[in-house]
Task: inverse folding
DNA sequence: CGCCAGATTGAGGACGCTCAATTCTGGTGG
DNA sequence: CCACCAGAATTGAGCGTCCTCAATCTGGCG
């Protein structure tokens, strides 16, 4: 029987940060799922919804969105292919923020009860999920540092570095970020206006660090961009060595 | 044998958001701990440290701190009595941010191996820890919304509302925030300068919403302050009803 | 070829920052 | 009990970054 490509990708993602036993891998790959397509700007989860599934992104890009009454939006997380967009909802099913498809996207829905059953019966998986949620927290903490203390140029550079690394799954990012993101989307994530994102991209282009052409972003000089951003990929925990220690503690 | 008051407080905190079985409660209360005192501004965990204990705060206030090379600080989380300040470190023991005592503080250190052993053998506890980390993420997401889209006045109002609720353990906060916090500490958390925090406090004082006297903050008009902040305490998950659903799914 | 969303550019204004001077507070020692 | 001191709070003046509100330009698509 065919196992979904999306689940395989998800398992590969988990294994970047956690050591999984064969049994644990098999449990995840056996999850049932329901595939949904979303158009750009379509809501995946509306604020206040109570959900009973998690959303595995297999294509496109989703954003967690918070909003003020004046309509000002703030994106608090971006999810790309292979990310479990709302694993936290398995713990707290009442959505305290919305989930939106920024581009056309394919989402695989997996019922909470299967995720929870796997976590309860296989402590190694429970840790892997917990660990992934912790990394999400580290990512948001870095965004908070950006919004609080970096100027627009460094903020933008940092986000580009982060996305590049997450897509590559490596501490040195890939040179092309092909996510079909608009400048307005970056603005929502960076706490800026799209006008200022545009001006800031021009600065990065003029110093030959990165540029935006068509619907992709290209990193021209990784070292320069990382220097501007003061980017240190350690917080993404993309190499397993640092997380090896707790695995050694796991019960045999 | 005497069980530490700090652990009792921590269990009570867990039980705000999770339903614990007697066995689970007992496991936590049996954890060994080592008490440490810190002075104001003393590091609890330095950036880059590899830790093998978690820090339960029993007195005072700790902050998770990120820093840029120019010395600009951003506080990404505040921990008060009863909070497990770095539960995430149980998953990723290599600290990607520092932990600092903002005031004199008492910390109870509990070895990771006891926390992990409890989580592995009692799935309900694993969920409780995971759930608490998820709430931490929601809190940071709200801070991100503040830094990205709220002006200084709303940002400050929101933080005061949040601290007030967290201290009270209730969705309507307590009127006095007695944490011995300086204006500079608020500035570090809000992405502002202490000068501007001061001016902003004056505004809130003039509109009779909140004020800072001596070493405490006083909320004069909760409704007004919450309106300024657009504060909705749902994200703190301080009432158990919303989290009851997943508990019902737990294996008997 | 016309249309439209998104990108780009300009001009002016506001919010928060920097740098400094001054006042206030509470803790200390005489 | 009071004088003193250090750290914190408060206030002022000037400036810079980013915002607002437009107008114009561009590229992809029908």
Result:
């Amino acid at each position: 029987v065919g196992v979904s490509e999306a689940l395989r990708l998800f398992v590969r993602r988990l294994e970047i940060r956690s050591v999984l036993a064969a049994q644990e891998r098999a449990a995840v790959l056996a999850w049932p799922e329901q595939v949904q397509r979303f158009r750009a700007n379509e809501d995946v989860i509306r604020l206040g919804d109570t959900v009973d599934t998690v959303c595995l992104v297999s294509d496109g890009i989703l954003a967690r969105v918070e909003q003020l009454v004046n309509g000002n939006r703030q994106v608090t997380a971006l999810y790309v292919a292979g990310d479990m967009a709302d694993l936290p909802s398995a713990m707290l099913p009442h959505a305290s923020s919305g989930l939106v498809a920024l581009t056309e996207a394919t989402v695989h829905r997996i019922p909470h009860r299967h995720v929870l059953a796997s976590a309860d019966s296989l402590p190694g998986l429970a840790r892997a999920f917990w660990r992934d949620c912790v990394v999400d927290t580290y990512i948001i903490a870095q965004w908070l540092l950006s919004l609080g203390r970096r100027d627009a140029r460094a903020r933008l550079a940092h986000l580009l570095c982060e996305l590049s690394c997450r897509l590559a799954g490596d501490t040195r990012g890939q040179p092309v970020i092909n996510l079909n993101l608009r400048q307005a989307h970056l603005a929502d994530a960076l706490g800026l206006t799209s006008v200022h994102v545009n001006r800031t991209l021009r600065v990065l282009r003029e110093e030959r660090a990165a540029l935006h052409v068509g619907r992709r972003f290209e990193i021209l000089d990784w070292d320069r961009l990382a220097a501007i951003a003061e980017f240190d990929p350690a917080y993404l925990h993309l190499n397993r060595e640092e997380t090896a220690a707790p695995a050694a503690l796991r019960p045999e």
